[in-house]
Amino acid sequence: MRNVEKRKKWGWGGKHGVGLGKQKQLSAAKKSFVVVLLSEIFPAKLAAMSSVEAWVQVACPRLSIDWGASFPKPLLNPYEASVALRHAVWDTKSYPMDFYAHESLGNWTPNHKPPCLCGKTRSTGCKGVSNNRKVSIERGSECGKDGGQRPALPDSLG
Fold first, then answer.
1. CATH architecture of 4-84
2. Where is the sequence biased in composition, kind Basic and acidic residues (predicted)?
């Protein structure tokens, strides 16, 4: 990925649910960024914004995979941006192509839901209590055969 993590100014292509989380990650990594919305992505359009050192596009992950080498600056998809920002590990065995999956592997997809407190997914029996919402934690888990246990509320949510 051409030492993308060292790039200081990033461009974010598209306004998408995935974008909000990545923008927070860029800010936390002390990266400046600009959000642009384009009808199509062409090398010449992105090259015109020469101060941007790396691009992340959320239109389709295959754009970066199939056409990324055609662009003068790195053109990453959200998974690759997660790796560059050290929020995901590069999978050397299998490249995750789960961008539109309902149970995706990471927060680089628009449908990603954090794992439930019970450790299950909907397909393995979870009833939908998420560990990232205060109200869900306060209600306790409905998952598992024993009805689940009410977890202790983290100090940050108390």
1. 3-Layer(aba) Sandwich (3.40)
2. 137-148
